[in-house]
UniProtKB/TrEMBL annotation:
Protein name: Glutamyl-Q tRNA(Asp) synthetase
Cofactor(s) essential for the protein: Zn(2+)
Binding site for Zn(2+): C101, C103, Y127, C131
Record key words, sorted: Aminoacyl-tRNA synthetase, ATP-binding, Ligase, Metal-binding, Nucleotide-binding, Protein biosynthesis, Zinc
UniProt motif 'KMSKS' region: location: 244-248
Any one GO molecular-function label of the UniProt entry: ligase activity
Species of origin: Azohydromonas lata
Lineage, highest ranks first: Bacteria, Pseudomonadati, Pseudomonadota, Betaproteobacteria, Burkholderiales
Amino acid sequence: MKEQAYVGRFAPSPTGALHAGSLVAALASWLDARAHGGRWLVRMEDTDAPRCVPGADREILRQLAALGLQADEPPLWQSQREAVYQQALDDLASRNLAYPCACTRRDIEAALAAQGHEHRRHEERVYPGTCRDGLRGKPARAWRLRCGTDAAPVRIAWDDRRLGAQSQDVTHEVGDFVLQRADGIWSYQLAVVVDDALQGVTHVVRGEDLTDNTARQIWLQQQIHAPRPVYLHLPLVLDARGEKLSKQHGAPAVDVADPLAALRTAAQALQLPVAEAGDVDGWLQRAVRAWACRWANGNSRER
């Protein structure tokens, strides 16, 4: 059987310009695609319009171009794909794999408290299944995906190229998760899985903070009969307080006036040794070879 051609992607949320952390993800995904002789796509994950900053998408594309990170196809905007996501949800609902939910956040917290669950900060709120068997006269607010039962829980195992063997009991650690929010916005989980499938993405390279999403995305892939990509979760770039560098916490935009300096900083965060070069193209060619030595020819697990 012929091996499937490599397709990778970089999928930023345009809530601001590229910062040091998102540049690391962009560079790593581009290098992995080039080291495998594959294609690299750019997708704007802008379904959550209230969080998006006007013009940030264009600024991200400008920064990528200045850094020599060219995509192999025109960018895709998720905000233009409402009909695709609706079709996926309709299909899941028609097979009773997705159902409407009337619960507010307060309802969920009250139900969990009644079950004796004390919520801890940063801990996932496991949906208690209140609306699984019907809305009980309440109006629908969101849509959720069924994720097994106590008798038949959904347990997902996968292998990460950096972190190694991973697993999660989606039923008991996540519960039935949201596909479409109460405000009509499509969830990250649904949009990313549908788009990865339709774009033929075979490899996902992204930050380690998204590792926890992987099991539920694999479960959703199974429900829509989509192939499972190969995953590589990268170490996060941290700020001076040891927290994830993010636009939300004021991470400055990457200065692309000196693209080589920006690229070298990102390579250092990836612990990728790349010699100095006189131009961006020459540096990127060397970076691809360095990446291939570490990642493309086998796993590079952390010890």
